[in-house]
Amino acid sequence: MSDSTAPEFSGWRSFFWPIHGHELRKLLPMLLILFLITFNYNVLRTMKDTLVVATGKQSGAEVIPFIKLWIMFPGSVLLTYVFTKLCNRLSREMVFYTMMSVFLLYFVFFIFVLYPWREVVHPHEFADRLQLLLPAGMKGFVAMIRNWSFSTFYVMAELWGNIVLFLLFWGFANQVTHLGEAKRFYAILGIGTNISGMIAGQIAVYISRTGMISFIPYGSRPWDQQMLILVSIVVVCGVASMAVFRWMHTQVLERDKAEADKLSQGEVKGKMSMRENFSYLFKSRYLIFLAVVTIAYNIIINLVEVLWKYQVHELYPNPSEYNLYMNQVMVIIGALATCTSFLGTGNLIRRCGWTMTAMLTPIILLVTSIAFFGLFFAKEYFPIYAQGLIGTSPLALIVFFGTLQNVLSRGAKYTIYDATKEVAFIPLSQECKIKGKAAIDGVCNRLGKSGGSAIHQVLLISFSSLSLSAPYVAGFLLAVIGIWMGAVSSLGKQFDSLTSGEQETAAATPATSEAEPLLQG
């Protein structure tokens, strides 16, 4: 295969579909697997928020930072550790099936055991006593313990993105895709991701509008049955993704000697371990800057989203209404991201370079966050006549601009950020890809969200409410965006050097016996 998109593509085909006919047998099953995984990701993303924010007893958006720091970060470390141990004992294909099964079995256990028995297993009396002993700013911590089964669902739903999507799928995709293909494939894979978000949102919106279904003997209110239906869809899609993954291995990769050789070369020499994975990261400036980009993005998105979800819950306290609104937002995000993918992502990377493309995401987050926080701070100064003039309440207006910020930032994430981050792994050696990606996507991703959560927790304990802590959140956000942009600039220089013609051969060479990753200097 050629790494070039080159002259055989017409102008329009080069723009919208720069794929050779013989590449479809690899691209299409990858696209279907990614579609199913991201469909689940989008369904779970709104469900988990509705559970902990609008369903849990005495809970709200304040619980999210505590869950992310106290449960999710240790959980991500644990599952990444399990992933590395499985990689030492099983083939990458069997690791995929094993990790997927862990998630799917948990969701089945939750919907048929934990959720129906929630009033029995949740320690409400203990939580009430604990609330009397702790300061008001620890309300989220108490809610996390009070509704512990909802907290574990939130964690597993969130880790679906980290473990299944990024470690399992993208780790596999980076292993069987070379740089020339990635620059063409990944934009199209991004389109599939965004379309899955639109479809997931539309299905969830339809289900959220249904009332009680008499012939389903489950739950006492519409939201209970809606959860049962959504979890059932997640399980079916998960099983289907494993079936397609198996078909791709037997019908595509095992029949293609070059791809089979690539897979065998991608196996890690020796035993993987968390310590060795982070040794790879800390010894490579390239991986360090990539980790900084990952951590910075997750800190920022967490800082902004907690405040936005707090406002949405104030506007829509009913779980079904909250879930309906969040799914409508997901549909809009998917539509915007799909249009952006069709019109620009792949071409930006190929024509404008990695650095310029990667810099767009922090710029978008900077501009939209300034608009959201500016309106948030100005809400107290809205006079009565101004509310009558705009025809809506300050809360509804803040929710609208927060939604706009979320739509644009998520749209940029699913098209620009994800594509540039995954392309940045391609020039590395196979061993460096696996170990570096396990450290960055398995732990650093969570570290960023936990860092944002830690900031929120300190501010909540200090000021007792999200509203009073908002000015300090904005200050942290601006500082982290500056660090992010600096890391993108430095990483872009090294990426350009690594992918230049003189160094492509060296980039494909595995790391030295002393585990020194690429680009030390």
Structural commentary:
With 521 residues, the chain is mostly helical. It has a single domain (21-507), classed as Up-down Bundle (Growth Hormone, Chain: A). Helices cover 80% and strands 0% of the residues. It contains 20 helices and no strands. The chain has helices at 11-16, 24-55, 63-89, 92-114, 118-121, 124-133, 139-146, 148-176, 179-208, 222-253, 257-265, 274-282, 285-315, 319-352, 354-378, 384-390, 394-425, 430-463, 466-498, 504-507. The relative contact order is 0.14.
Can you describe this structure in just a few lines?
The chain has 521 residues and is mostly helical. It has 20 helices and no strands. It starts with 10 loop residues before the first helix and ends in a 14-residue tail after the last helix.
Topology of this structure?
Elements: H1 11-16, H2 24-55, H3 63-89, H4 92-114, H5 118-121, H6 124-133, H7 139-146, H8 148-176, H9 179-208, H10 222-253, H11 257-265, H12 274-282, H13 285-315, H14 319-352, H15 354-378, H16 384-390, H17 394-425, H18 430-463, H19 466-498, H20 504-507
- The fourth-level CATH homologous superfamily is MFS general substrate transporter like domains
Shape: globular
- Major beta-sheet overview: none
Distance between the termini: 32 Å
CATH architecture: Up-down Bundle
Mean pLDDT: 82
CATH fold annotation: Growth Hormone, Chain: A
